[in-house]
Structure formats: C-alpha cells, structure tokens
Specification:
It is a single chain. The chain has 58 residues and is an all-alpha fold. The protein has 2 helices and no strands. The longest helix has 24 residues. The N and C termini lie far apart (37 Å).
Length: 58
Amino acid sequence: MNERTLSKLRQDYLKMIRGELLTTILAISVVDSEGNDVTPSKLVDEKSRTCLNSLGTI
C-alpha cells in the first residue's frame, strides 16, 4: 500500500475510535452512594445536544 492509502486508513480508523469513545462516554451516568444522580452538568448538556442532533437527522 502506498503512503496516501495508509494515511486514509489511519484517519478512518481514528474517526471510528473517536465515535465509539464518544458513544461510550455519553452512556455514562454518575451516581453517588445514596443513589443520587451527580452526573456533571457538562456531560448532561452534551447528552441532550447529541440526542437532539440525532433526532434531527432521522
């Protein structure tokens, strides 16, 4: 394979990994020992934004 092909494959691979990582992180909720949801607001906001964006693409 030539360098251009390898570079394209690397970029595609990294894009897939980043997408999977984002999906995993957005599935996380943090709960304290008393059962209260203490998920950071930044993560909750990103979950909402991602959900709304995916609904707009249906």
